[in-house]
Design a protein that fits this description.
single chain; mainly alpha; N-utilizing Substance Protein B Homolog, Chain A; 2 domains; 8 helices; globular; disordered N terminus
């Protein structure tokens, strides 16, 4: 895999325009920071709320949704092992969650969290949002990987939402 760009320097294109999209990107940045520093979700959420989430930090003048940001970061921390098991169940045999590059791993964990815990967000929207987040850090190969993993996970967790899409129905992973 190619080396990712540092999360702090992520380019924000038009796809990152909404407050919810900015929250997802910030959550991935926070999860990356947590992975590198072993900081708690509580501490990182507090730091981001104070220094990084306000409209003053966005070139377009819009800030992230602090409630969604906090829910994602705290939810991923709380469900970490469960999320890794879900991701591992849909990875090819030659892939291991622990061997994934850190940014890629946290993007997948955040996407898996939303697919499994935020049923108010349609699965195709969640997949697109995290593909967009991945595009802030990676080239096409990794974004395709994120799309494939989250699509398979969505088919396992919410088959009724994706029945009519190409690829058919995937049984729920045991």
């Amino acid at each position: 895999m190619t080396t990712s760009r540092p999360p702090e320097s992520a380019a924000r294109g038009p796809a990152m325009a909404s407050a919810r999209s900015r929250s997802r990107l910030a959550a991935v940045q926070a999860l990356y920071q947590m992975a590198l520093t072993s900081s708690s979700a509580e501490a990182v959420v507090r730091e981001f709320a104070r220094h990084r989430l306000g409209p003053q930090n966005e070139p377009e003048g819009g800030g992230a949704d602090p409630k969604l940001f906090a829910e994602l970061v705290q939810g991923v921390e709380a469900a970490g092992g469960e999320l890794d098991d879900m991701i591992a169940a849909v990875l090819a045999d030659d892939h291991d969650v622990e061997r994934l590059e850190t940014v890629l791993k946290v993007v997948l964990r955040a996407g898996a969290y939303e697919l499994s815990h935020r049923l108010d967000v349609p699965a195709p929207v969640t997949i697109k949002e995290y593909v967009d987040v991945a595009e802030a850090f990676y080239d096409k190969r990794e974004t395709k990987f994120v799309n494939a993993v989250l699509d398979q996970l969505a088919r396992a967790l919410r088959p009724e939402e994706l029945e009519d899409r190409p690829g058919g129905r995937t049984p729920i992973a045991g």
